[in-house]
Amino acid sequence: MNPAITSRRQLLTAGLFAGAACRRKTGKLIGVVPKATSHLFFVSIHRGVDAAAKEFGVEVEWNGPREETEHTRQIQIVDAMVAQGVDALAISATDERALAGPVERAIRAGIPVAIFDSGVDVEGYVSFVATDNYGAGAEAARLLAGMTGGRKVAMLMHKPGGTSTNLREQGFQETLARDYPGKVLAAKQYGMSDAARARGAAENILTAHPDLAGIFSSSEASSLGAIQAIRSRDLSGKVKLITFDNSAAHVEALRESTTEVMMVQDAFRLGYEPVKALVMKLRGETPVRHQDIPARVIRREDLDKPEIQALLTSQRPEN
User: Which of 17, 110, 167, 242 has its CA 20 to 30 A from that of 253?
Assistant: First the structure.
């Protein structure tokens, strides 16, 4: 065998095997690979994963790249988990095409695979659990069209290649074009999964289009960037903003009218349901193959409702 290939395989598996040596395996082991570990959204998903693992009596190996742009790192993690011999695998892919090969290798190795949050271009998975992302984008288009008097709106996008955010962006753009011909999508830019870069992109849009009426931000990072840009220009309430995902900064922006609407995913369920589906498969049962979880539309007046507080606080890592 080529020594370079042998060396690469050793590097891929060393980290996970070291972790396995420190852990006494008492039951089935499910590998869970998020798109990123640095985002609050995936911290909340992790809580759902852990709750399901505790409820169903399985162990979880949680490992993912720090940022959603690190495709190569996520491929390494998946390959290492396959080499380790996890009993099942759940993944939220950084890129639907780049991760297809590693996921196919897992399936060929006889490892049941559940996909959550963001899709992979494969067919042999056990279950796919995600927000109804296209529907969420379409709803954002309807909401923004209804609250903006001006013709021009913009979209602050996440990054290329991520299925979940791409579907949101597609739903927004197609619904706006089809149902609201009087509205013009004047600009759309990527924030590349980084709040600082998203702020720069939002600043560019606001500079180029001083008559802009509204912005849809399709992810946590792009939302935070848009919030900062609108505040810095004293445009709160003047440029209508719809954000996606949840954090203390999102809630503060909604309370102070920098944001008009938050769209929030049920991150806990996005972690819980794929682990549950894999446990069912390992027990010889048949899980639901496709689960669409609606995004929740939250307005300022909704924030203190008990059910909204329960949704938002269940996603806070400090709780």
Answer: 167
